[in-house]
């Protein structure tokens, strides 16, 4: 039970730190948001789920953006190391969050169905 709470706390700290780096736009200039961070049980790997925040209305390929973020994962990891006080910084693996896209698609379908 204590390990699960610790994982959730560390995931929350990582979520805030990565979001802060992305908002500041130091390393990555696209409009992306972090939806979730899930840590492995041994705290060595963190799956970071990414959602596009398409405020500009342009269609971007989420997979290309996630690949670019995975290539710059070391830089992101280095920039958050000052905010996150851990003995070992977990490896960051960025993944697209498809649940959010599925929610939008279902919402559009429900809104477009005319009283069915």
Describe this structure in words.
- This protein has 116 residues and is an alpha+beta fold.
- The chain is 48% helix and 19% strand.
- It has a three-stranded mixed β-sheet, with helices on both faces.
- The N and C termini lie far apart (46 Å).
Question: How would you concisely characterize the structure shown here?
Answer:
The chain is an alpha+beta fold and 116 residues long. It is built from four helices and three strands; from the N terminus they run H-E-E-H-H-E-H.
Key traits:
116 residues, alpha+beta, three-stranded mixed β-sheet, 4 helices, 3 strands
Straight-line N-to-C gap: 46 Å
Task: Name the helicity range.
Answer: 40-55%
Poorly predicted sequence stretches spanning 5 or more consecutive residues? none
Largest sheet: 3 strands, mixed
Query: How many helices does DSSP assign?
Result: 4
Give the strand order of the largest sheet, numbering strands 1, 2, ... along the chain: 1-2-3
Q: Please, what is the average pLDDT?
A: 84
Task: Report the strand count.
Answer: 3
Q: SSE order in H/E notation?
A: HEEHHEH
């Amino acid at each position: 039970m204590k390990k699960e709470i610790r994982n959730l706390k560390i995931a929350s700290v990582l979520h805030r730190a990565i979001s802060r780096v992305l908002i500041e736009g130091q390393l990555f200039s696209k409009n992306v948001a972090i939806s979730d961070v899930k840590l492995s049980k041994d705290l060595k790997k963190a799956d970071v789920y990414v959602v596009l925040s398409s405020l500009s209305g342009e269609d971007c390929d989420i997979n290309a953006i996630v690949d670019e973020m995975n290539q710059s994962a070391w830089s992101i990891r280095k920039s958050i190391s000052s905010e996150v006080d851990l003995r070992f910084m977990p490896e960051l693996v960025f993944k697209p969050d498809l649940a959010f896209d599925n929610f939008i698609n279902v919402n559009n379908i429900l809104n477009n169905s005319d009283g069915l």
